[in-house]
Design a protein that fits this description.
The complex is a heterodimer of chains A (515) and B (98).
Chain A lengths: L8 H9 L5 H19 L2 E4 L1 H16 L11 E5 L26 H8 L3 E6 L33 H8 L5 E5 L6 H7 L2 E4 L20 E5 L2 H11 L17 H7 L10 E5 L9 H16 L3 E5 L7 H16 L21 H12 L2 H13 L6 H22 L4 E5 L15 H5 L6 H6 L3 E8 L6 E7 L5 H19 L14 H9 L1
Parallel strand pairs in A: 2-3, 2-4, 7-8, 7-9
Antiparallel strand pairs in A: 1-3, 4-6, 5-6, 5-10, 9-11, 10-11
Helix pairs in contact in A: 2-3, 7-8, 7-16, 8-16, 10-12, 10-13
Chain B lengths: L5 H10 L6 H18 L34 H5 L5 E2 L2 E2 L9
Antiparallel strand pairs in B: 1-2
The chains are: A alpha/beta (515), B mainly alpha (98).
């Protein structure tokens, strides 16, 4: 019998369509695996087992009745907890929203439901997506399936760990400065940040509204394309949603599997995203990938993006400024917890301050205070105003680079997965993880991370980042699918097939030992 | 070096409506100083001739048709509130006694 949890969403789609397997069987296999390993991995904050099986049974019945269903109907998916789901708690990893069940679905959640996907549950994340490790989740960290003592990346470490540990073939993430791409890199999975405005943000609990973008988290480029086709496109409920009509990303990914797909593609290597600060094994795998691309007929071009050096500084002014404003909605009135001050009069203002002290974790407080500072009178021009100008300069760097090349590439992250606690006491060290991914968010261009090998020094996954001009997400999928095929042909296997098999949790094991 | 003081952090915390303990204020004063020092480099290239960008994909005049669409019921809107009275959100006193 095929091990259903190891199959891609595309393969599951085929088996479901010809009724070799039922959605109930597929869903149960994933739920069983979650029950066996998630105590150790902790990718999920909430598992909706009964609801998932009931939905799966309805999809099976519709298929049996001859209904026309979309390609991913009956395939399970995990949802990042930043997305509102009207039948599951939606906490964004924060205590302040503990137990909150929204009265509506995010548009992307509505779309995956309408497409017949099976929602397995909600995945862990750094609180309000502020972090690169899930260590700032109020509900405890997620563990990297490659090494449970290491971080799975962040903020979307839960979604990345869920797909890379075979708990779900698909997941949704959100990417404000790399929260989809960096977790993909350190877990050996695939993640895509679409063009800003390409996927609706309605119902995504806002971190930084001009940077946030929802996207697919998967194990293959083609699966990401299939999911992108489900969630993408104009949404009148999001005023920043682009009205463009988009080509099929799945068709674009299939085009990348044709022989010769890389011939003549101009691939730009960004000079500033290399060298010091990059782990030797990351640089080695990147250089090897460039050599493979070159041998396959791609033209490697060195490009310079001089203002990327200022991207982290600009980002850590713009993001806190927008976050401090967005998070003002947590006022203990309409949703979330309410905490009264220990003493003194009970006024709305004092209750709000006590609630936010009790409900927000250290990183959220740090960024709200920083954002409040950056926006205060007397500092606004020097900090926030200057950061917005840097944003213009970074867009110009992208424009100049894309005048010379078709796609840009870099390592997705400067290092492989680090150990828990390594960067918790030094906020700036944690922020520097995002050096490679932040420029795409500042400029709004689409970016993808896919696995490009294991670092020789630690045997941990390394990710390749690909970026394309704004609105040319399809180019990412064509190029990404071609690179994935090239790399897997050179290895003779998928990267994730080399991940250690996770044993059922120790609790299970010890019980069995007693028997 | 930035000149962030503990008094300033306490003031910011008050503006942001977050009760912070004296220990948190001390820790944040140090951390904020370090962060502000390293992000201040944006000023090096932000010359007057560079226009600011607030939004990566600018759109103007985003309207929808002026038609009535379903919205949340009162029960749904109140469903996540910490406290409510009938069909209204219930809040502590808005004004202090002073």
């Amino acid at each position: 019998m095929t091990n259903l949890i190891k199959l891609s969403a595309a393969d599951l789609s085929g088996l479901l369509a010809d009724r070799s397997v039922s959605s109930v069987e597929v869903t149960r296999a994933h739920l069983d695996h979650i029950a066996a390993i998630d105590t150790d991995v902790h990718a999920f904050l909430h598992v909706a087992g009964d609801a998932a099986l009931a939905t799966a049974a309805r999809i099976d019945a519709r298929r049996a009745a001859g209904d026309t269903l979309g390609p991913l109907a009956g395939v399970p998916i995990a949802i990042k907890d930043v997305l509102a789901t009207q039948d599951m708690p939606s906490t964004a990893g924060s205590k302040i929203l503990e137990g909150w069940i929204p009265p509506y679905d995010a548009t992307v959640v509505r779309r995956v439901r309408d497409a017949g996907l099976i929602l397995l549950g909600k995945t862990n994340m750094d609180e309000f997506a502020m972090g690169s490790s899930t260590e700032f989740s109020a509900y405890g960290p997620t563990h990297n399936p490659w090494d449970l003592d290491r971080i799975p990346g962040g903020s979307g470490g839960g979604s990345a760990a869920a797909v890379s540990s075979f708990e779900a073939p698909l997941a949704l993430g959100s990417d404000t400065g790399g929260s989809i791409r960096q977790p993909a890199a350190v877990t050996g999975s695939v993640g895509v940040k679409p063009t800003y405005g390409g996927v609706s943000r309605y119902g995504s609990i806002a971190l930084a509204s001009s940077l946030d973008q929802v996207g697919p988290v998967t194990r293959t480029v083609y699966d990401a394309a299939l999911l992108h086709d489900v969630i993408g496109g104009h949404d009148p409920l999001d005023s920043t949603s682009l009205t463009d009509s988009w080509p099929s990303m799945a068709a674009a990914a299939r085009a990348g599997l044709a022989d010769g797909a890389l011939k003549g593609v101009r691939v730009g290597v960004i000079k500033e995203l290399a060298g010091d600060g990059f782990q030797p094994g990351v640089t080695q795998r990147f250089d090897e990938t460039l050599a493979l691309l070159s041998a396959a007929g791609a033209e490697i071009v060195q490009v310079s993006a001089p203002n990327f050096e200022y991207a982290i500084a600009a980002y850590y002014l713009i993001l806190p400024a927008e976050a401090s404003s967005n998070l003002a909605r947590f006022d203990s009135v309409r949703f979330g917890i309410r905490v009264n001050p220990a003493d003194g009069p009970l006024t709305s203002e004092r209750v709000m301050a006590a609630t936010r002290d009790a409900g927000f974790g250290p990183e959220v407080k740090r960024r709200i205070i920083l954002g409040t500072y950056a926006l205060s009178a007397g500092y606004y021009d020097a900090y926030y105003g200057s950061a917005q100008k840097v944003r213009t300069l970074i867009q110009r760097d992208f424009d100049a680079a894309f005048a010379q090349v078709d796609v840009l590439v870099s390592p997705s992250a400067p290092t492989t997965a680090f150990k828990f606690g390594e960067k918790m006491t030094d906020p700036m060290a944690m922020y520097l993880n995002d050096v490679t991914t932040i420029p795409a968010n500042l400029a709004g261009v689409p970016g993808m991370s896919l696995p490009m090998g294991l670092a020789p020094e630690d045997g941990l996954p390394v990710g390749l980042q690909i970026m394309a001009p704004a609105k040319l997400d399809a180019r990412l999928y064509t190029f990404g699918a071609a690179v994935e095929r090239l790399l897997e042909a050179s290895w003779g296997h998928t990267l994730l097939s080399r991940a250690p098999e996770l044993a059922p949790t120790e609790m299970f094991a010890s019980e069995e030992g007693v028997v | 070096m930035s000149e962030i003081t503990a008094e300033q952090v306490a003031h910011l915390a008050n503006l942001a409506r977050i009760d912070l303990s004296p220990e948190e204020i001390n820790r944040l004063t140090t951390e904020l100083g370090q962060i502000v020092d390293s992000v201040a480099k944006v000023a090096e290239v932000a010359t007057p001739d560079v226009p600011a960008t607030s939004h990566p994909m600018p759109l103007t005049n985003v309207f929808r048709p002026d038609t009535v669409v379903p919205s949340l019921t009162v029960e749904q809107a109140l469903s996540g509130a910490p406290d409510h009275d009938g069909d209204k959100f219930k809040v502590p006193a808005i004004l202090d006694e002073e």
